[in-house]
Input
Amino acid sequence: MPPGRVWRKETPEEIVADGTEGGYAAGPVAALRRIAFLLERAREDTFKVKAFRSAAATVLPMPAADLAAHVEAGTLTDLPGIGKSSARVITEAWHGRMPERLARLEREQAGPLAPGGADLLARIRGDLHSHSDWSDGGSPIEEMAFTAIELGRDYLVLTDHSPRLKVARGLSAERLARQLDVVDAVNTHLDGSFRLLKGIEVDILDDGSLDQTDAMLARLDVRVASVHSKLAMESPAMTRRMVTAVRNPRTNVLGHCTGRLVTGNRGTRNQSQFDPRAVFEACAENDVAVEINSRPERRDPPTKLLELARDTGCLFSIDSDAHAPGQLDFLAYGAERAEAAGIDPDRIVNTWPADRLLAWANR
Ligand SMILES: [Zn+2]
Ligand SMILES: [Zn+2]
Output
């Protein structure tokens, strides 16, 4: 059962069609989650989004009678995590009315994110790069999984950061081991048609080694390796560093290869310097996918390099690099770029079914 459905009202006369005649039947939690999803997808300030996510977390476990009492008494804002605007949404949804805030977002923000790439997007079955609140993401693991299910995905690889990336609360081997138990627990609560897969975005250290124990890397389903430090290294050293990481038999995906930032509130950053031909040839030889990072502020690799990787015979992975559930929809941006570059969908590993993906990643 999708999580948005848990608050459906029970009496038949209260069940009205979603969004028609101003009616809304999915209930307060679904309304709050949908608002948060659309705000994240539109790259809104996390502070704004958090208000709706924490309100949903407060309402979800509440007995129906308690919530009804607070709605009737107008005391929702006395509850932890519920501010004025979430209280309004809860009240409207509780009464079976389409919340005004949600109606506006559906009107203004729910359309396709990118004008192109729709055919390719429809062939994408999963996502190989995502973060939860265990590292620098904003939502719990299960919320990321539920949203991926709602988006029709067959699988999602959870790839929180590795220990060296302290600013992002990178996971030690011990925390990663605990996370793997949580992933197992989430999967046992699902019906098997969707799989949350075990992964990591592992830092490529200065010498090209990977920032996690080999024993832990061996326990994962998919490993994305990325450079996050010393991006301004001289080209020969950076090339050696990246080629060494790509040749590591544990590496499956080379994450955001240039590290550039083209827009957004983190400012801009030039692409790092390396010999792209040498790096992409190593990817092709070692069956490592070049990531097409879909985040609008990254658009990595740049188009010229994307075309070079295409001509070098590389595999690709179109990744959202989502740090919030709504950002899982970013795949539309990567699909548009891959389609424009004329990349054969069968060379994009996340158009593959999970079993084929897992066989490739653990060959
Ligand atoms: Zn990264
Ligand atoms: Zn990432």
Summary: Strands lie at 126-127, 155-158, 195-203, 222-226, 253-254, 289-293, 315-319. The pocket of zinc ion (ligand 2) is lined by residues 129, 131, 201, 321 (CB under 6 Å).
